[in-house]
Amino acid sequence: MLFEALKLVFDPYVLWVILGSAMFGLFVGAVPGLTATMATALLVPVTFFMPPVPAIASIVTATAMAIFAGDIPSCFLRMPGTPASAAYTDEAYAMTKKGQGEVALGAGLVFSVIGGLFGTAVLIAAAPALAEVALRFSSFEYFWLVILGLSSAVFLAIGNPLKGLISLLLGLLVSAVGLDNPAGFPRFTFGNAELAGGLTLIPIMIGMFAVSEIIRGVAGIDKPWEMAQASIGNVFRGMGGLIRKYPWQTLRGSTLGTAIGALPGAGADIAAWMSYAMSKKFSKEPEKFGTGHVEGIIEAGAANNSALAGAWIPALVFGIPGDSITAIVIGVLYIKGLNPGPTIFMNNAVALYAIFIVFILANLLMIPLGVAAIKSAKQMLRAPRELLLPVILLFCIVGSFAINNSAFGVLLMLVFGVIGYLMEENGFPVAPAILGMVLGAMLEEHFISSMIKADGRLIAFFERPIAGGLGILTLAVLSVPLIRAFFRTTMRIPGGGTPK
Amino acid sequence: MPGQKFGPAWFPGLIAVGLILCGALLAVRSPKGVWISFPDWVRSARAVAGVASVVAGLLFYVVAADKLGFYPTALLILIVWMRILGASWRVTLPVAIVATLVIHLSFYKLLRIPLPWGLLERYAF
User: Does pLDDT of B97 surpass 60?
Assistant: First the structure.
C-alpha cells in the first residue's frame, strides 16, 4: 500500500504540480495582503481538472509554503505576509533593525519545517485512530461534534465572541438557502433557479478571502512599502545552536499549534498568537521579547506550520474543517470522490497515504525553495501592486465563473467580497461565517434526524455514552465565558479578561 | 409543512432567533452616538476611485461578459483598474494584454472552461 502511494506521488506530473504550487505559495505568502487561504481559494478552480492526488497535493504544498513565506516581509517591511505571521512581525522586524535579519529568516524557515513535520506526524498517527472511534458515531454524536466545532470557532476567534457568534449565524443562514435540506423544500430562493441549487461555496470563499483582501489592498494603495535594508548571507548559520538552545520551545509550539489547528475554526494565525504569548510567559528572559529576540519567533513559527497539518485531522476524519483552508479543502475532497469521514481510511487508503507523503515532501521541499525565496525576497516585494491586484482580480473572476460556468458566480463573489471586507473592518471575524456555511447542512441534517429519532425529547441527545460526554463537554465550553462574564460583573475580578 | 414535526422552517427559525438575540445584545453594548465612521483611505482620491472601480468593474463583467465576450471585457476592466491605481499607459497596455491572453488560454485551453466569446464568436479558436 505504501508503495502504491509512493508511486502516486513520485509521478512526473504530480511532482511538477507540487513544484509549481510551491512557487505559487511562496509568492502569495511573501506578498503582504495575499494570504494562504486566498492561495487555496484561487487554486480550487485549477484543481477541478486534476486527478485527486495532485489536486490535494497542490493545496497542501502551496499553503505550507505560504505560511512560511509570510515571515519574509515581516523582516523586510514590518508587514506580515499572511495573518499567521502577524504575531511576531514586530519581533522579526526588530531583529532586522539590529542586523540579525538573517537569523530571523533562518529561524522562520527551519522551525517552520520542524513544526510542519511535527504536525504531519501527529496527523498520520492520530487520524486513523480517531477514525476507529468515529465509525461508531450516530447523528447524536455528529450533532454535538459540529456544535463543539462551531463554538470553539466562535470563542477562539480573535476579538469579540459576540461578533464571532453573529458571523457564525450569518454563515449558517447562507447554508440554509436552496433545496438541499432534509425536507427538500426550497428556502430563500425567491423563485430563482440559481438560488434553488443553494449558494455555491467556492465563489463565496474567493469573495471573502481574495476579493476582500484586494479591496483592502486597493484602499491602502497610497501607503508605500518601505524596505528595511538587510544583507542576507547563509540563513542556516547558527540554526543548530538555536535547536539545541530552545528544544522545549520548539516542542511546545509544535504541540500547541497542532492542537489549535485540530480545533475547528482556529487555524495558523491563532496558533501563532497563542504560542507567542505562551513563549513570553514561560521564557527565562521575557523582558527581551519585542526587542528583537528569536525565542518567540521559534515557538510561534513552529506553531503556525504545525497548525496547518493539525487542521486536516478533523477535516479528514469527521468532515469538520480545522481552519479556513480545510473549510475549502473539504469541498475539493467531495468533488474528487475522497469523501471525508471515518470510512475514508477504508475506501481511499492509498490516496490518503499519498496525501500524507505529500505533507512530508512539501515540508522538506521548503528548505531549498525557502532559501531561494529569501534570496529573491527583494524582487518579490517590489512587485508593483497597481498591476498585481487587477491581474489577481481577473483570476478571481475566471475562477468563480469556472465553478458553474455562470456569471452568477462572479456576482456571488463580488457580494461576499464586499461583505467580507465590511465584516473584517468592523471586527467581525470571517472564519466562523465560513465554518457555518460549510457545516450548516451537516448540522441541520444531524439535528433534524436526531430530533425525529428522539421524537422531540431533548434528553435523547445525552442518552448514548459518547454523545452524552460530547454534549456535556460542549455545554461546559459554552458556559465558561458566561460564568466568567457573570463573575466579572458581580465580583469585579481585576484583569479577568484575556486580551488578544 | 403538514405531517412533519420538524419541517424545513425549523432550522432557519432557530438561526433567526439567535440573530435577533445577538443583534439586541450588540445594540445594547455598543457605544452610543456614533452610527457610522469612515476609515482613513476615503481621503485619498486614488483609493476611493480604486475601490469604486473594483466593484463597478466586477458588476460590468457580470452584465457584459456574455454579450461582449471575455477578451474585450477583461481587457477593458484590466486597463481601467491599472490606470486608476496609477500605472502608466506604457506598462498598462502590455501587461493587460498578456495577462488576458495567459488567463484565457490557461483556463480555456488547458482547463476547458467555456469562457464566453461574445462579439468575437466568428474568430473563436
Answer: yes
Q: Do B11 and A218 touch (CB under 8 A)?
A: no
Report the chain A residue with the minimal C-alpha distance to residue B39: A425
Q: Is A379 exposed, middle or buried (CB count within 10 Å of its CB: 0-12, 13-18, 19+)? A: exposed
Q: Judge: A219–B95 Cβ closer than 8 Å, yes or no.
A: no
The nearest CA of chain A is from the CA of B21 a distance in Å of: 10
Query: Using CA atoms, how far apart are residues A201 and A40, in angstroms rounded to an integer?
Result: 13
Do the beta carbons of residue B80 and residue B53 sit within 8 Å?
yes
Q: Closest by alpha carbon to A361, among A47, A106, A56?
A: A56
A42: number of Cβ within 10 Å = 22
Distance from CA of B120 to the nearest CA of A (A): 18
Give, as one character, the DSSP assignment of residue A484: H
Check pLDDT > 60 for residue A496: no
The SS3 call for residue A178 is strand
| Residue type at B7 in one-letter notation | G
What is the predicted ipTM? 0.90
Residue A112: predicted pLDDT: 95
Task: For chain B, give the DSSP string.
Answer: -TT-SS-TTHHHHHHHHHHHHHHHHHHHHSPSS------GGGG-HHHHHHHHHHHHHHHHHHHHHHHH-HHHHHHHHHHHHHHHTT--HHHHHHHHHHHHHHHHIIIIIIS------GGGGGG--
Q: Do A173 and B115 touch (CB under 8 A)?
A: no
Q: CA-to-CA distance for A261 and A251, rounded, in angstroms?
A: 15
Contacts of B5 in chain A (CB under 8 A): 451-452, 455-456
**Interface test with chain B among A44, A202, A401, by most B beta carbons within 10 Å:** A401
CA-nearest residue of chain B to A442?
B11
Record the cell numbers describing residue A61, joined without a space.
504544498
Residue A103, helix vs strand vs coil: helix
